[in-house]
Specification:
By secondary structure, this protein is of the alpha+beta class. The chain folds into 2 domains: about 60 residues, Antifreeze-like/N-acetylneuraminic acid synthase C-terminal domain (Type Iii Antifreeze Protein Isoform Hplc 12, Alpha-Beta Complex); about 100 residues, no CATH class. The protein contains 2 helices and 9 strands, in the order αββββββββαβ. It has a 5-stranded antiparallel beta sheet with strand order 5-8-7-6-9. A two-stranded antiparallel ribbon has the order 1-2. Strand 6 and strand 7 form a beta hairpin. The chain is elongated and about 135 Å long.
């Protein structure tokens, strides 16, 4: 008997090994995918920008009273879509600093072209105000200014006048306290009344803020009763 365990056995051949190839960064499929992404981004930007019809226009950054001469601090540009009403408002590339507003406007309101005017001829007057004779007053508010002396009480010097500037100061004119310097723009005649009143003996000026819509008081016609003896 033949021993079969000693006979050669046929075994399947081993598969040939596959060599790993390094990745190719210039794979056409990769390049094509990147190009498609870039095209999609560009097209999306074009579509969004063409759909955005907003324009940059001027808006008020704070409340201002009629007659206030605008400064850069009063304005801020905003982007809005106004459609057919766009032509009625001032674009942010239009110079408006130094012009005045015809009516009182509130912070956030868009600046309409119809509300603008050139400043009327006038004189700028600085009024020192003791802290006990006036509330907190800010630029753009309307005030009434009263005069009192030893011979008169509470005569109206000005009323309904917008404050162009309000600054807190400490100096010899106010002692150890902090007073205010109010800057107003008025006619030459009103400026003369204010300056003359400051030269009266015992002159005390008081100021009050008019609320929106409040009518100004009628200024006193003459200050002769307040004259007394001049300093």
């Amino acid at each position: 008997m033949t021993d079969t365990s000693l006979l050669p056995v046929d075994r399947p051949a081993s598969p040939a090994p596959r060599r790993l190839t390094p990745p190719r960064w210039l794979d056409p499929r990769l390049i094509g995918g990147v190009v498609l992404v870039l095209v999609a981004v560009v097209l999306g930007s074009v579509v969004v920008s063409s759909a955005d019809r907003r324009q940059s226009v001027w808006a008020l950054s704070r409340d201002v009273a009629a007659g206030t001469v605008l400064t850069g601090a009063d304005l801020r540009p905003v982007r809005v879509q106004l459609g057919a009403a766009e032509s009625g408002y001032l674009r942010a590339d239009v110079a408006v600093i130094g012009r005045t507003v015809r009516r009182s406007l509130h912070a956030g309101e868009l600046l309409a072209a119809a509300e603008m005017a050139e400043p009327e001829p006038g004189v700028t007057v600085t009024i020192p105000m003791q802290p006990e004779n006036a509330p907190q007053i800010s630029r753009g508010e309307r005030i009434t200014l009263w005069l009192s002396t030893k011979t008169c009480r509470g005569l109206v010097l000005l009323s309904g006048v917008p404050v162009q500037s309000a600054e807190k100061v400490t100096g010899s004119a106010f002692g150890s306290t902090t007073g205010s310097l109010l800057v107003v723009r008025v006619s030459a005649a009103d400026a003369k009344r204010v300056v003359s009143s400051l030269d009266l003996e015992g002159a005390v000026l008081r100021a009050g803020v008019l609320s929106p819509g409040e009518q100004p008081e009628q200024p006193s016609e003459a200050l002769a009763s307040c004259a007394g003896s001049a300093r």
